[in-house]
Design brief:
5 copies of one chain form a homopentamer.
Chain A (H helix, E strand, L loop, with lengths): L1 E10 L2 E2 L7 E10 L7 E3 L4 E5 L8 E6 L16 E6 L2 E4 L2 E5 L5
Parallel strand pairs in A: 5-7
Antiparallel strand pairs in A: 1-3, 1-6, 3-4, 3-5, 6-7, 8-9
Chain lengths: 105, 105, 105, 105, 105
C-alpha cells in the first residue's frame, strides 16, 4: 500500500456497466522527503482509485493496488486495480510526526 | 487505474486463438503536469490495451491493469493485462478542470 | 500488454519440471519514440517470455504480463509471468504507420 | 520480495471494516549500495505494509507484495498488497556480511 | 521473467510459519548492456527470491514474479512473490552468445 493525496476526480459517462455509480478519484502517491525526512512529498505520479469510504479532495489516504483492490465488499466484482482503504490520520516517522490530518487544511 | 490517451492501434494476425476479434489499442498514460498542475501530460510510456466500449483514437480513457483486466464480461478468459473501462469526460484537479472531452479535438 | 522485439533466447537445463520443453525468448519492450513519434524505440529493458505461437528472433510481438500469462491453453499451470500472445503485423500511430512487419528485416 | 527498513507507522481511523486492528507500518525498500557493495542503502521509495509478526521501528524486514500478501493466516481476506513475512537477521553478499541485526541499533 | 545473478542470501529467524525451511537468496536483475549489447549488466536493483532448485551464489538464474511464483510444487501455499525457476546455461542475443555458464566463474 502507499499513502496518497486525493487531488481530484474523473467523470466517465461511457464505461463498463459494473462501474456505474462508483466514485473515481485522482490520487497522487506521496513518499518521505528524501532531503530532510520531515514531511511527505509527492512522487509526481498520478493514479485513479475507487473510493468506498467517503474520502474527499485534500485528504491523505491509503491505497491498495492489484487484485487486492477487489477484496472489499463494494469492489468484489469490479474491473479495478486500485482502491482507497483508509483515510490517514497520522504518519509517524523516525519517532516524530510527519503528517497529521488536523494540521492539513 | 490511470488516464491514458488512445493514439493508435496494433494488428497481429498470428495470435493466441482467444484473442481473435479483439481490438488492440495503443495507449499512452498521462499524468498531471508537475510544472503548473493545469493540464495532463504524457508520461512517455506506451502500452497496448483491449477495448470493449468503442474507444477511438484521440480519446482519453481509463485503463485497468493486471488480473482485474479480466473482470469485464468480454475479457473474462482472455490472456490480457490491460483493458479500457471508461472514456473520460472530465478530469477535475485542485478544484478546477484540467481535461474536458468537449475541448479536446 | 506491450510491444517488444524478440532479440534472443535463454537455455536453462536445470529448471522446475513443468518448464521443460517451453521456449524462453529474450524480449525488449519498445515504446513510441518521444522525439518524433515516427517509430518504435527500445526502452532499454530486458525480459524473458515464453513463446507458444512460433515467434522468431527479430520479430515484434505482443507480451502479456502477470497472472494473465497463464490464460493460454499451453501455459495454464506454468510458473511464468510473461507470454507472447501475438506477432505484430502493424502499429498505427497518430493516423500513420510506425511499424510494418513487411518493412522489418 | 525485498528487504526494507521499518521507519514509522500510519494511523487511519476511518477505514474498510476488515482492516480494523491491523498494524500499518511505513517501510522503505533497501538495495545493495551500488558504489561499494558493502552495505544496504535506501531506494528512496516509501511503502505501507501490514505487520503480523511483531516487527518494530528500526528493524529490517522482508516484504512480500501483490496477491501473495494474502497468503498468511492473518491476512487471507484483507484488501492489502504488502505484508511483512520475516525480520531480517543477516544479509550475506559476495561472501561477506552486509547486514547483521546485532550491529544495527 | 528476468535473468538475475544470485549474489547472496538472507537469514530471518522470526518469520511467518510457512516460510520456515525455505532458502532466501539475494538476486540482482541483469539486462542487456545498452552500450554494446555484448554482455549482461546489472540493473542496480536488489530482490529476494525463494530457491527450490539448488541455485548457488554466482549463478545466473531465471526469476518469476507475482502470483505465478506460487505455481511450483514447493511454493504453492507460500506468501512469496518471486521464485527461481531455472539456472541459466546460455543467453543468445542478436545471433551471438552474451552469457555462457561455462565461462562464468
Amino acid at each position: 500500500m502507499f499513502v496518497a493525496k486525493v487531488t481530484g476526480s474523473v467523470v466517465a459517462s461511457t464505461k463498463v456497466d459494473s462501474m456505474v455509480g462508483h466514485k473515481l478519484l485522482i490520487v497522487e502517491p506521496y513518499r518521505i522527503d528524501p532531503s530532510d525526512r520531515k514531511r511527505l512529498v509527492t512522487t509526481g505520479r498520478t493514479f485513479v482509485a475507487v473510493d468506498t469510504i467517503g474520502s474527499g479532495e485534500g485528504e491523505y489516504v491509503l491505497i491498495v493496488q492489484g487484485s487486492s483492490a477487489r477484496l472489499t465488499p463494494e469492489t468484489k466484482t469490479l474491473p479495478i486495480d486500485a482502491v482507497i482503504i483508509g483515510i490517514v490520520d497520522t504518519v509517524q516517522l523516525d519517532g516524530g510526526t510527519v503528517f497529521n490530518r488536523k494540521d492539513a487544511s
